[in-house]
Amino acid sequence: MRSGVMDWQGQKLSEMLMQIMLVVHALVAFVAGYTFSSFQMMLQIFAGGVLLTTLVTVPDWPWYNRHPLKWLDPAEAEKHPKPEPPVSKKKTSKHH
């Protein structure tokens, strides 16, 4: 698999991990900041969570490429018939 090309399942997994990790880090940061009455601590914890989330979800790690798509090469694709466009079966009404 080429580097930088994440498959569809990998994109879905990355998006889900990103959302979960950001919410968990936001909750942890809020609780810690509230407990210690420190806005600075809250921001530092959340910034660390954003950094960790970025490191886990942005690079094209191998576990995001477990379901690669199998594309036909152009020579093989020409051997198969192209799909016909759907025929609409609209009823025509006659006006008298």
Automatic annotation (TrEMBL):
UniProt keyword terms in alphabetical order: Endoplasmic reticulum, Membrane, Transmembrane, Transmembrane helix
Function: Component of the signal peptidase complex (SPC) which catalyzes the cleavage of N-terminal signal sequences from nascent proteins as they are translocated into the lumen of the endoplasmic reticulum. Dispensable for SPC enzymatic activity.
Gene Ontology CC entries for this record: signal peptidase complex
Region (Disordered): 75-96
Key word Transmembrane present: yes
Protein name, UniProt field: Signal peptidase complex subunit 1
InterPro entries (alphabetical): Spc1/SPCS1
The keyword Nucleus appears for this protein: no
Swiss-Prot/TrEMBL GO biological process terms: protein targeting to ER; signal peptide processing
